[in-house]
Amino acid sequence: MSLPFYIVDVFAEKKYAGNQLAVFFDAENLSSTEMQTIAREINFAESTFITKLDLENNSAEIKIFTPGQEMKFAGHPLIGTSWVLIHKIFKNTPENIILQVPIGAIPIHKTDDLIWLTAAQPEFWDVFAKEAFLAFTNLQSDDFNDQFPIQEVTTGSAFVMVPLKSAAALENLVLDKDKMNNWLHANCRTSHHGLYFYCLEDSSIKSRLFYIEHNQLQEDAATGSASTCLQASILKYHAPEIDLINYQGDYMNRPSQIHFKGKLENDHFDIKIGGKAQFVAKGEWEA
Fold first, then answer.
1. How do the pLDDT tens digits run along the chain, 287 residues long?
2. 121, 139, 266, 272: which one has the fewest Cβ atoms less than 10 Å from its Cβ?
3. What are the residues whose beta carbons fall under 8 Å from the beta carbon of 141, sequence distance 6 or more?
4. Measuring CA to CA, how many Å separate 145 from each of 149, 191, 199, 264?
5. DSSP state of 122
6. Domains of the chain: residue spans and CATH
7. Using CA atoms in the order 270, 69, 151, 274, what is the torsion angle rounded to 10 degrees?
């Protein structure tokens, strides 16, 4: 079986930055096990598989896999897949499309060279004491920004938001993998979990996402799903309306820019993240 595929860099201002994504078409006859095997082989943070394509209505059903597991929702795969569909597959470069993922329909909107998604309503779960993080990081107690809680938040995929006071603390962050892994398994509600460290500075954010996969400590260059959770946290605890950029990936030489445009009104969260994607390659995959 031959599968057409595209590779794009997502949340990237230029090629070879941002987060890599492989988008596979004609995947309706693949099993989840086969998709997982392909995702593990290409070994990007995530890969997507188009299982149904509706050219008349500009919509598609997709499945999302990391090298280790399937995801119900993930931001950079949705942004990257949408860019491929809008610019390479659908006619007349539509401004609005719909992607169906396990958590439901995700509306996508294109403005100029940015692709935007609207996230589901967030859920705010457990709040954690900063003292627990002193055991598996090099952080000190006064490195944390007490304006925000350390909290697990989900908009479809859950992450623990960890606010820091300074970019220096973020840049110099060191984690103990085994102790971190024990903490994640003891405290997080879902099987896919990560720690999203961030520093809010005026009109921008700097961030780093760490998680453990295949018993290895991993850092992600641009995490759209975690960014929707972070935007929800900022709207709830800082300002009811925001328009700013989240800079991630700087400390791993994959600089990324994730645009935030959000509003909290009458307990309703309007959470939008946007970014650019850069076309890298296309080909045929022999499955």
1. 899 999 999 999 999 999 999 999 999 999 999 999 999 999 999 999 999 999 999 999 999 999 999 999 999 999 999 999 999 999 999 999 999 999 999 999 999 999 999 999 999 999 999 999 999 999 999 999 999 999 999 999 999 999 999 999 999 999 999 999 999 999 999 887 899 999 998 788 999 999 999 899 999 999 999 999 999 999 999 999 999 999 999 999 999 999 999 999 999 999 999 999 999 999 999 98
2. 266
3. 130, 131, 134
4. 8, 27, 8, 22
5. P
6. 2-118+276-286 (3.10.310.10), 123-272 (3.10.310.10)
7. -30
The C-alpha angle with vertex 42 and arms to 40 and 44, in degrees rounded to 5, equals 85
Residue 250: CA count within 13 A, CB half-sphere: 14
pLDDT score at 202: 79
| Token digits of residue 130 | 């900063």
The token pair at 181 is: 């892994």
Helix (H, G, I), strand (E, B) or coil at 138: coil
44, amino acid identity: F
CB 118 within 8 A of CB 139: no
H or E element: which one contains 178? helix 177-187
Q: Going along the chain, which residue ranges are E strands? A: 2-10, 19-24, 46-54, 59-65, 70-71, 96-101, 104-111, 114-118, 123-128, 150-154, 158-163, 194-201, 204-213, 216-220, 241-248, 256-265, 268-275, 277-286
Q: Is the pTM of this model over 0.90?
A: yes
- For the chain, how are helix, strand and coil distributed in percent, rounded to 5? 25, 45, 30
For 191, the 3-state DSSP assignment is: coil
Cα 232 off chain centre by? 14
pLDDT at position 178 is: 97
Pairing mode, if any, of strands 59-65 and 70-71? antiparallel
